[in-house]
């Protein structure tokens, strides 16, 4: 039996089970869908860069000033001694390393999935950004909340609340509604049936992080 994979994640103070980040949830779902045992190492925002450097993880992008940015999710697989960053790269790795059982990318679907994710982000998720950015700090532990606010306000040159002032929120939510309505129309082209990713969610609810944190 394989050893549990380590998933590095960001804890939340006000979310049951601790997991809240949409990006790290992608990897939680992937591990659960494939039925792979894993454990969680929780990292507060100020500790992410040092901890990831220590395990040999690579930065996934750059900060606005050009310096490397270390992000989650990241996994460490003790069975192969590999450290993988970025949810898409992690999914590719899991399929290649553990091909038995369900695949995250069934043959011939990787390009389609990548395209759908890009379209979903630009159409439905991007309009949420100015609404969610100032709210993110409310679910975090104090040290992460302070770090999140300080770094993002430094990067973008304005207060988080300035991304969507109260007077603009109704119009912004309308954009969100329009975006998700467009995505709904795409899904309806399939002619009905189970909601997309429903089977993944169902599989995930039966899988638990071996550390005891719920993975679903």
TrEMBL record:
Coiled coil: none
Gene3D superfamilies: 1.20.1050.10, Glutaredoxin
Pfam families with a match to the protein in the record: GST_C_7, GST_N_2
PROSITE patterns: GST_NTER
InterPro entries: Glutathione_S-Trfase_N (IPR004045), GST_UstS-like_C (IPR054416), Thioredoxin-like_sf (IPR036249)
Domain of life, per lineage: Eukaryota
Sequence ranges assigned to domain GST N-terminal in this UniProt record: 11-102
Protein name, per record: GST N-terminal domain-containing protein
The organism of origin for this protein: Jaapia argillacea MUCL 33604
């Amino acid at each position: 039996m394989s050893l549990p994979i380590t998933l590095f994640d960001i804890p939340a103070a006000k979310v049951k089970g601790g997991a809240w980040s949409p990006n790290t949830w992608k990897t939680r779902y992937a591990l659960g869908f494939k039925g792979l045992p894993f454990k969680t190492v929780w990292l507060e925002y100020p500790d992410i860069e040092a901890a990831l450097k220590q395990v040999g993880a690579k930065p996934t992008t750059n900060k606005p000033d050009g310096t490397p940015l270390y992000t989650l999710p990241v996994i460490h697989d003790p069975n192969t001694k590999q450290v993988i960053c970025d949810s898409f790269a992690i999914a590719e790795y899991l399929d290649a390393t553990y091909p038995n059982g369900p695949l995250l990318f069934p043959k011939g679907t990787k390009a389609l999935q990548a395209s759908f994710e890009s379209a979903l982000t630009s159409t439905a998720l991007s309009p949420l950004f100015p609404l969610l950015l100032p709210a993110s700090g409310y679910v975090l532990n104090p040290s992460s909340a302070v770090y999140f606010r300080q770094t993002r306000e430094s990067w973008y040159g304005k207060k988080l609340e300035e991304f969507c002032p109260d007077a603009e929120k109704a119009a912004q939510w309308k954009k969100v509604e329009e975006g998700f309505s467009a995505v709904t129309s795409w899904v309806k082209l399939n002619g009905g049936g189970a909601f997309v990713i429903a089977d993944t969610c169902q599989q995930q609810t039966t899988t638990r992080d071996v550390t005891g944190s719920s993975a679903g």
